[in-house]
Amino acid sequence: MKLLSVKEIAGLEADGRQVTVKGWVRTKRAVKSAVFLEVNDGSRLSNLQCVFESPEGEMAEELAKAGTGASVAVEGILIPSPAAGQRFEVRASSCRVIGEAPADSYPLQKKAHSMEFLREIAHLRPRTNTFGAVARVRNRMAFAIHEFLQAKGFNYIHTPLITASDAEGAGAMFQVTTLDLDRLAKSGGSVDYSKDFFGKPAYLTVSGQLNVETYCQALSRVYTFGPTFRAENSNTSRHLSEFWMIEPEVAFAELSDNMELAEDFLKHLVRTALCDCAEDLAFFDERIQSGLIESLKAVLDKPFAHMTYTEAMAILEQSASAFEVKPYWGLDLQSEHEKFLCEKIAGGPLFLTDYPKEIKSFYMKQNADGKTVRAMDLLVPRFGEIIGGSEREERLDLLEKRILELGLNLDAYGWYLDLRRFGTTPHSGFGLGFERLMLYVTGMANIRDVIPFPRAPRLADF
Ligand code: ATP
Ligand code: MN
């Protein structure tokens, strides 16, 4: 017989049919002569309760070994449950312990554990309610991203993770090398990169954008969705050294089209989470972030707010005493400023546009004022930036001038500039941080808890 998951069993009629359940014991309770096992296989949040009436002999011996964390196979019949909060349970006729989890050494006993402690046992934390729910929502969101973009005719482009072009400029990069660093250090000489694997310095990518723009200028609607790496020493609850990013890029699209896409996209993802991850979201609402569901529903109801950076700065300056970092025109907004604007002014997601060119990347389209660029960030309550994007500079002369102004090497951008030399188009795109999205829809507080194995400064265990 094909093994059914707990979720599949939950879809059956509790009509006394025979079922087999395999999973891990969450709890075991003895009430009078009966033993209750709560079995979870990760297919959904809720456990399946298995009831053993007056177990004796061999079955009693097996149940003695079936403590929290043990893997078990239970057979029995599915019946309506007299207990509150569950429609059905299994009246068990047999229990087999597949793998024991000794109570004196298994770290996940039935009690509340801190997120910090669970990070130290990242290999076992998916067995908790919280991390099981995170994993299921993460899976659903990844799929929904493809669904949404594919339905709109976007092509998924696989951009490289290793780059030797040193041209992305979005943040500090990790170097990739096969040179023997120990020997080099001892020899004291300078590094000869012609002897390195790629014949020149190479790095892990900080963004797939420049590469995906090449396909945008041929297939019109494209996106990448993959890991990106940033070697910034930022030990915050919003930054990882390795994170996943979704980067759509659209030819013939202006900044307003770009923002419309971003808004539709985020709303689609929120709607999908509310609809398809209802049980997990109810758990997050109850245990992690009170009011989560209501605030997500509210996001669907009204259009996102818009403001220019200059307007936002004027507002921030009026409340300067509320901030650790004093706001002034030209400052790269801190999370505290972003949160203030969303929470106190917009009351929800907020697009900020037209940032000073000095704090944005070289490829963003320059405005006629000579000071600002056609950038847009989408800011949300609780942590600030979730999306960063822009209309790209499509005018060859202005782009070249900006590269030189910033002291960058024009030759390194040859292929990128070719996109402006040959059949240039206005085009726009953005990057949605996948883990920031996860923070948003789950209400989790720390980005290290929405990715299976977080990478951050001095943290690369597992
Ligand atoms: P921030 O100002 O929050 O550090 P950024 O401006 O450096 O972000 P972008 O270069 O615009 O970020 O990257 C696009 C998106 O990628 C961001 O909007 C954010 O969602 C996500 N992101 C950026 N850096 C990180 C990081 N270190 N960890 C996780 N997600 C990130
Ligand atoms: Mn940004």
Strand-helix topology:
Blueprint (H helix, E strand, L loop, with lengths): L5 H5 L7 E14 L2 E7 L7 E5 L4 H9 L5 E10 L7 E12 L15 H6 L8 H23 L3 E2 L5 E2 L11 E2 L4 H7 L14 E3 L4 H11 L1 E9 L12 E10 L3 H22 L1 H10 L4 H10 L3 E4 H10 L16 H12 L3 E7 L15 E9 L3 E8 L4 H10 L8 H8 L5 E7 H9 L20
Parallel strand pairs: 3-5, 6-10, 12-13
Antiparallel strand pairs: 1-2, 1-4, 2-3, 4-5, 7-9, 8-9, 10-11, 11-16, 13-14, 14-15, 15-16
Helix pairs in contact: 4-7, 4-8, 4-14, 7-9
Manganese (II) ion binds next to strand 15.
Q: Assign the CATH architecture of the largest domain.
A: 2-Layer Sandwich
Outline, from the CA principal axes? elongated
Pattern of helices and strands: HEEEHEEHHEEEHEHEEHHHEHHEEEHHEH
| CATH hierarchy class name of the largest domain | Alpha Beta
Quote the CATH topology of the largest domain: BirA Bifunctional Protein, domain 2
Question: Largest sheet, described in full?
Answer: 8 strands, mixed
Distance between the termini: 36 Å
Based on CA atoms alone, the radius of gyration comes out at: 27 Å
Order of strands across the main sheet: 6-10-11-16-15-14-13-12
The average pLDDT value, as a whole number, equals 95
Residue stretches low in confidence (pLDDT < 50, at least 5 long) are: none
Helix coverage percent of residues? 25-40%
CATH H-level superfamily of the largest domain: Bira Bifunctional Protein, Domain 2
Number of helical stretches of at least 4 residues: 14
Present as ligands are: adenosine-5'-triphosphate, manganese (II) ion
Total of domains: 2
Beta-strand percentage?
15-25%
